[in-house]
Specification:
Keywords: ANK repeat, Signal. InterPro entries: Ankyrin_rpt (IPR002110), Ankyrin_rpt-contain_sf (IPR036770). The protein is mainly α. The chain folds into 6 domains: about 100 residues, Ankyrin repeat-containing domain (Serine Threonine Protein Phosphatase 5, Tetratricopeptide repeat), CATH 1.25.40; about 120 residues, Serine Threonine Protein Phosphatase 5, Tetratricopeptide repeat, CATH 1.25.40; about 130 residues, Serine Threonine Protein Phosphatase 5, Tetratricopeptide repeat; about 325 residues, no CATH class; about 180 residues, no CATH class; about 80 residues, no CATH class. Helices cover about 50% and strands about 5% of the residues. The chain contains 56 helices and 15 strands. The strands form 4 sheets. Strands 1, 2, 3, 4, 5, 6, 7 and 8 form an 8-stranded mixed sheet that branches. The protein has a 3-stranded antiparallel sheet with strand order 13-15-14. It is globular and about 115 Å long. The N terminus and C terminus are likely disordered.
Length: about 1200
């Protein structure tokens, strides 16, 4: 019907045009009387009749440039201003297509020259956009409004300037167009011409007195954007026109800063010559020299040094240009800075020196240069690690050798007492261990818990290291604080080869720990039969053997797999256990929605849109391998990608960008571009209160390479909707193609890896419950069984291999096979697929001659980039074959023992709570903790809560108690909304205590007695994935007291001197990861204040303490407050056990306080004294 209607409308338009033609060129005299019926119908046609999309005959003729038809229609009284559905008039479409004669006729017929379409674009605007100079001239002459803006605020001059239409620009300027008219983003014609590098247009605008310093809403000036893009001629013109070379944007970045960041050497030279301030820092303290050093732009660095840049200027975290260049391994830059007298021992806030960070990253040449420049080889960071310590930890053999040669102290310990030898022994790096032993390292040096290098190597099962240490006369019976010997811990963990070495070395096999357990006892308890046999053969006394017989004969039930269930039964068990632990499509969608909200908050705080939360936290699956409840596993992290503005690469044969940019070859999924360190992520350690963080810097790539699953005629089992979603990724501005600073083996510094993280994210977010469960199961088997030190300890595989295999399974497995009873079978198929890949790779290696350019360690093809390979993790060229053989052997064993291993996996899963609580505290896990300026608005957006709370803590820690200070703090606290109620009331109570109003503080904490915080999102099994949106999560956060857990970054710990000693120690709580991070749980603080001020009934307070002691999700701060105020000694013991498992920083302090508190109460009760001694 619709087709028929359209054809009828078109017929009417054509008949109308025909009617006009016949009227104009009609028949010769005497013929008109003989017209048939059809011709009479035509003559009566309506010349303004529109088709259903609004096009009139005049519109169509104007569009096609049919001047004679247009003239005829005008003569026939056609409406010259009749618009189609998008608001385009005949004059608009003729102007767009450059039909000058038609435009002239329409103007002459009084067409409205300022009639705008739905987007606010006038005929003059569209003609200016397309560069139709004659049309523009006619429209100007017809009195078109030359400053008429579209809905985005863009004027004709703006769009002509953007597109580089020089003649049009000249005509508009001559017609007195406003050269400073800005669009909604504050961009002027000069700004956009500068951005696009249209030099002639820029010159014309400058000549017309355009404001060369007019900034957009982000504070960027024309000179800034031209400097960012590297348009040298434009920069020169702007400087000549007296542009302010030091004008900074909202982040306080200057033109020189951004040009230095992007390595635009000519631009930098011009700016320096124009007296740009070479030391002008942006809001985080980074100078032009700092950023150029960070990116390794050697020529830029040389120019800045020559211009007297301060080579020791530090940013807010204390990092100097030399530090960041050392961090990224830019050897030439390091040499230039050293030559310019940069302080080689200048430390950042964490105490890390340039030598320390270069040693950590393994940049051998940089380390050599710094040592040669007399860098202090023993300079320790705040947590006590020396350069040698960190190089040993990361197995950088060459660096270790250089530091030892430079007389580094081989026995220097960190705050936990760990020496370089201890750490190398822990990692099992026998080469580093050997070098340290040769350098006379103390083989018996113990850390704070009494563990020696031999002890930790035994615990980890590193038999080669154990052998080396024993050979060097390490004390084989040296016990740690709990009385455990190296032999005991090796027996506990079942390291048979290590135990044999100790027996051979005459270790005391009957040595008991503080609890009286011997090596034989613990080996028997853990069913390590080989170890038990070895110890028995070592002539352990008969009494100990008898004592252990029961344990030997009856190994633990969890290891008894004699009656293994069938694949189908086990599949149902595994599927059910995973579902109960939250591994469902619905909860994965909620995880992704939470990540999207975290990204929104991060971007809003930073006022940028080039930060992306990526990786397992965003993908929905795999953030935790025990339960899907929002919490990140201890050995997992949150990945954040920063897309560097103004840095875009272009691929040969694929790039279609204008302006002939420099292009690079794409080989094996990498663009060939030298000069960058292969260092994809900058990692920040995590702890129990905050997950680890990986910051990844990336540069844009103009377009995606061909994507394998989307190639034409490719057969796939991936649903059509998912394939369409993948296609959208390729063109969406929210998922830009990019490259990261990583390279294939032996190619570091010569190429950049193309990242498909957004495609992977989309694919993982599209997994069904069963597919997601398969992914999680495979990830467990690789991370916890194959690679883990307590599993097979076979290195080389990584999560990315699991991702790829999962994608292949989804691609290759027919939809009817995705049934829960097939989960074990699908897992086995996946492992076999992985094994086949490794075997194929190993076979290719055997058949390939061992040439210097041979790339070893290739495991499989990339799923999205068909011509790219995926490699072993961390295997050097010499050991790749050995790794592949080990992986093949381990995979075969895992496949053989799959039922038992899956039962272990089921046992490790943790069901979600009855309410299905999903934990999301964005201000606890916020990736960027740098403070931002406070808003002046009285109403706070959610993301602004963080900085207000932080500022309140800062002001509370100051000594200023003036009336003005009191009033401003009170006003600031009052701005916090109800979704931060606990934080607001706790801060209010602290302010009262600071300024001496104790009774008011009591009333404040009493007033919110009975109030409950939101511990998370209640997400029942009935919820669907479609309900899990970022909007839902944001509504939840805004409608409840959700902002009560915070992590902050301070240069030093804020001291709340007005609190009592115990509270002052607990709030805020420092982290143990060496970073200046501090934690605040304001709900715990409110309870601490209630207990301190005694505003709540004792029974209610003890109920809260009991709840904290019993709750699985209680954090360190809650447990500390509970332990300090509990009246039940057994309860205190349980709390202390939990804190010990968390490795709480204040554990020793707490024990001392508890000993003091309970000592008087236990003098007369021997049983309590014994319990107290156990603390």
């Amino acid at each position: 019907h619709r087709y028929g209607a359209e054809m009828e409308a078109l017929w009417r338009i054509l008949t109308a045009i025909a009617a006009v033609l016949m009227q104009t060129f009609g028949r010769s005299a005497g013929q008109s009387e003989g017209l048939d019926g059809t011709e009479l119908d035509i003559l009566e046609a309506d010349v303004n009749l529109q088709r259903n999309t609004g096009e009139s005959p005049l519109y169509i003729a104007s569009q096609n440039g049919d001047h004679q038809v247009v003239s005829s229609l005008i003569k026939a009284q056609a409406d010259v201003n009749l618009q189609e559905v998008d608001g385009c008039s005949p004059l608009y479409i003729a102007s767009q297509n450059g039909h000058h004669q038609v435009v002239s006729s329409l103007i002459k017929a009084q067409a409205d020259v300022n009639l705008q379409n739905v987007n606010g674009c006038s005929p003059l605007y569209i003609a200016s956009q397309e560069g139709h100079h004659q049309v523009v001239s006619s429209l100007i002459k017809a009195q078109s409004d030359i400053n008429l803006q579209n809905v985005n605020g863009c004027s004709p001059l703006y769009i002509a300037s953007q597109n580089g239409h020089h003649q049009v620009v000249s005509s508009l300027i001559k017609a007195q167009a406003d050269v400073n008219l800005q669009n909604v983003n504050g961009c002027s014609p000069l700004y956009i011409a500068s951005q696009e590098g249209h030099h002639r247009v820029v010159s014309s605008l400058i000549k017309a007195q355009a404001d060369v310093n007019l900034q957009n809403v982000d504070g960027c000036s024309p000179l800034y954007i031209a400097s960012q893009e590297g348009h040298h001629q434009v920069v020169s013109s702007l400087i000549k026109a007296q542009a302010d070379v030091n004008l900074q944007n909202v982040d306080e970045c200057s033109p020189l800063y951004i040009a230095s960041q992007n390595g635009h050497h000519q631009v930098v030279s011009s700016l320096i010559k124009a007296q740009a301030d070479v030391n002008l820092q942006q809001n985080t303290g980074e100078s032009p020299l700092y950023i150029a050093s960070g990116y390794g732009h050697h020529q830029v660095v040389s120019s800045l040094i020559k211009a007297q840049s301060d080579v020791n200027l530090q940013e807010v975290d204390g990092c100097s240009p030399l530090y960041i260049a050392s961090h990224n391994g830019h050897h030439q830059v390091v040499s230039s800075l050293i030559k310019a007298q940069a302080d080689v021992n200048l430390q950042r806030n964490t105490g890390s020196s340039p030598l320390y960070i270069a040693s950590q990253k393994g940049h051998h040449q940089v380390v050599s240069s710094l040592i040669k420049a007399q860098a202090d080889v023993n300079l320790q960071r705040n947590t006590g690690e020396s350069p040698l310590c960190i190089a040993s930890q990361n197995s950088h053999h060459q660096v270790v050798s250089s530091l030892i040669k430079a007389q580094a102290d081989v026995n220097l310990q960190n705050v936990n007492g760990c020496s370089p030898l201890y750490i190398a022994s822990q990692n099992g790096d026998h080469q580093v261990v050997s070098s340290l032993i040769k350098a006379q390292a103390d083989v018996n040096l113990q850390e704070v818990d009494g563990c020696s290098p031999l002890y930790i190597a035994s615990q980890k099962g590193h038999h080669r290291v154990v052998s080396l240490l024993i050979k060097e006369q390490a004390d084989v019976n040296l016990q740690e604080v709990d009385g455990c010997s190296p032999l005991y811990i090796a027996s506990q963990n079942g390291h048979h080869r290590v135990v044999s070495l100790f027996i051979k070395a005459q270790a005391d096999v009957n040595l008991q720990g503080n609890t009286g357990e011997s090596s034989l006892y613990i080996a028997s308890q853990n069913a390590h039969h080989q170890v038990v046999s070895s110890l028995i053969k070592a002539h352990i006394d008969s009494q100990e053997v008898a004592k252990s017989t029961f344990a030997v004969e009856e190994p633990p039930k969890q290891l008894d797999f004699v009656c293994s269930p069938s694949d189908s039964e086990l599949s149902h068990q595994l599927h059910s256990a995973l579902e109960q632990s939250g591994f469902t499509e619905s909860r994965a969608a909620l995880q992704s929605a939470a990540a999207d909200v975290l990204q929104q908050i991060l971007r809003s705080r930073l006022n940028v849109d080039n930060y992306f939360v990526v990786g397992s936290y965003s993908e929905g699956w795999g953030n935790s391998l025990t339960t899907l409840d929002g919490r990140t596993d201890a050995n997992s992290d949150i990945d954040v990608m920063h897309l560097i503005p103004g840095r875009e690469y272009h691929q040969k044969s694929l790039c279609e960008c204008d302006g002939a940019p420099e292009q690079h070859e794409l080989v094996n999924g990498h663009i060939q571009c030298s000069g960058f360190a292969s260092n994809p992520a900058d990692a920040t350690d995590g702890c129990t209160l905050r997950p680890a963080l990986d910051n990844v810097s990336a540069c844009g790539l103009c377009r995606y390479p061909p994507i394998a699953p989307l190639l034409p005629n490719r057969v796939s089992n991936i649903p059509h909707a998912v394939l369409e979603a993948l296609r959208k990724v390729l063109t969406s501005a929210s998922s830009p193609c990019h490259v990261v600073y990583a390279a294939s083996p032996d190619r570091g510094g010569e190429e950049l890896r193309v990242s498909t993280s957004f495609l992977e994210n989309r694919m993982l977010r599209s997994l069904t419950t069963l597919q997601g469960q398969l992914f999680v199961t495979l990830k467990y088997l690789v991370k916890k069984v194959i690679c883990h030190k307590n599993g097979f300890n076979q290195q080389g595989l990584k999560s990315y291999h699991v991702k790829t295999i999962t994608f292949r399974m989804v691609d290759e497995t027919p939809v009817e096979q995705w049934k829960k009873e097939n989960l074990v079978s699908l897992t086995r198929q996946s492992l076999q697929m992985l094994l086949d890949c490794v075997e194929k790779s190993r076979e290719q290696d055997r058949q390939t001659p061992d040439t210097p350019d041979r790339s070893r360690g290739r495991i499989m093809n990339h799923f999205f980039l068909s011509d790219a390979a995926i490699y072993l993790k961390g295997a050097d060229k010499e050991r790749a074959d050995q790794h592949l053989d080990g992986i093949m052997s381990t995979l075969r064993t895992v496949i053989d023992r799959l039922p038992q291993l899956l039962q272990q996996f089921i046992g490790s899963l943790r069901p979600v709570s009855d309410s299905g609580t999903f934990y999301f505290h964005p201000f606890q896990i916020l990736p960027d903790l740098r403070p931002k300026p406070l808003t002046k608005s009285s109403t706070l957006e959610y993301y602004q809560i963080y900085d207000v709370v932080r500022e309140c803590l800062v002001r509370l820690s100051r000594s200023d108690c003036s009336q003005r200070s009191q009033e401003s703090l009170t006003e600031l606290i009052a701005r916090l909304p109800d979704c931060a109620l606990s934080a607001r009331e706790a801060l209010r109570a602290l302010a009262c205590l600071k300024f001496g109003y104790r009774e008011t503080a009591e009333r404040v904490v009493s007033s919110c007695s009975g109030h409950s915080v939101s511990r998370g999102i209640a997400w029942s099994r009935e919820k669907s994935a479609t309900e899990a949106t970022a909007e839902f999560v944001m509504r939840h956060l805004s409608s409840r007291d959700s902002a009560w857990k915070f992590c902050f970054e301070f240069d030093q710990r804020p001291k709340l001197e007005f609190l009592t000693g115990a509270l002052r120690e607990c709030f805020p709580l420092g982290f143990s990861n060496g970073v200046v991070h501090f934690y605040m749980n304001f709900d715990a603080l409110l309870w601490a204040l209630r207990l301190e001020l005694r505003t709540d009934r004792e029974a209610r307070a003890q109920d809260w303490i009991r709840e904290v002691a019993e709750r699985e999700d209680s954090d360190e701060q809650e447990l500390l407050v509970a332990a300090l105020n509990s009246s039940n000694l057994e309860q205190v013991q349980e709390i202390v056990k939990k804190l010990k498992m968390m490795r709480a920083d204040l554990l020793n302090w707490l024990k001392a306080r508890l000993q003091e508190k309970w000592s008087d109460q236990t003098q007369e009760v021997p049983s309590k004294k014994r319990k107290l001694s156990c603390l």
